[in-house]
Amino acid sequence: MLGAMVFVTIAAMIRVPVEAPATLRKIMVPILGVMLGSGFHPGLFDHVNDWLLTFAVLPFFVGTAFAGAFAFYRFVGKYDMVTAYFASAPGGLNDMMILGGEAGGDERRIALAHASRIFIVVTGVVFFYAFVLDVRTTGSSRPYLGFSAVSLRDLGILLACAVVGATLAPRLRLPAPQILGPMILSALVHLTGFSQTPPPTPAVNAAQLVIGTVVGCRFAGAALREVVHDLALALGASTAMLSVALVSAFAIQALTNTEADAAFLAFSPGGLPEMSLLALSLDADVAYVATMHIIRITIVIAMAPIVFRLFGKR
């Protein structure tokens, strides 16, 4: 994921004609949802109190991170109020871009701000784990699972979770429907013991490659100077968000049995697919991290328009 993300971003910045593989993304994201759902197992219920406390802290994290990023974009970046507001949301790239454009903000700047946030958060978390927490991983800690190692029955179950979940979730208006729908069905399948098999490793690896490529392609068509300017501003805003995430993670560690590294991943405001893949690579609790990101995104998408309507004119 990181290799594709970095090199496609560089290609986009030097005006190589790259284009996001939209059709492939629609296929690969449900695979990630099924993979995330396979991380759920009955033993997770032993940690329900820890999860509930993280739920309680999430709204305070969202509000504080939102405010810190807004202050940076407004007073350092000199963005207008509407653009600064929707560029500062710690999640909901597509929703914030649409809502911000309809409210009179600069839709392109909002999109670049969120693309930059995801790029910087994902990259920053990796370096933080490597050089601060001294975590080293080659991804080999998880066993390789080829297609031949998965029975036709389990392949059929996982495929059904992906197809049915991705089809029904948009109709139910769930957030991040292409990943959340398959994740919910896969979680139910694995919690009930109907299947205990994750998706084959080659499928997950292909999904990582596509997700990284999509992140890089978000910078396509923007002038180099514009991308560098927005990345610099996003670096400041993302640092503010990650600082709040780090404080929240240490608070959760002090109050529960959750390790700070897993809590930090859960609070880091990157994209749901990207942060979930990092959790997979770093052997963190994928179910915990993915669930917290879904709740964070839901809070942002639900509350950002309401707060804007209440205080926007003022």
In brief:
The chain has 314 residues and is mainly alpha-helical.
Architecture overview:
- By secondary structure, the chain is mainly α.
- The protein has one domain (2-311): Na+/H+ antiporter like fold (Up-down Bundle), CATH 1.20.1530.
- The chain has helices at 2-13, 22-37, 48-75, 81-87, 93-102, 107-131, 152-171, 177-191, 201-217, 224-255, 260-267, 272-281, 286-311.
- The protein is globular.
Please outline the helices and strands:
Elements (H helix, E strand, L loop, with lengths): L1 H12 L8 H16 L10 H28 L5 H7 L5 H10 L4 H25 L20 H20 L5 H15 L9 H17 L6 H32 L4 H8 L4 H10 L4 H26 L3
Helix pairs in contact: 1-9, 2-7, 2-8, 2-9, 3-4, 3-10, 3-13, 4-5, 4-6, 5-6, 6-10, 7-8, 10-11, 11-13, 12-13
- The percent of residues in helical segments reads over 70%
Please tell me the overall pLDDT.
Answer: 88
Count helical runs: 13
User: What is the radius of gyration computed over CA atoms, rounded to a whole number of angstroms?
Assistant: 19 Å
InterPro entries: AbrB_dup, AbrB_fam
Transmembrane segments: 51-73, 118-135, 155-172, 231-255, 286-311
Protein name: AbrB family transcriptional regulator
Organism: Silicimonas algicola
Keywords:
0% strand, 314 residues, mainly alpha, Na+/H+ antiporter like fold, single chain
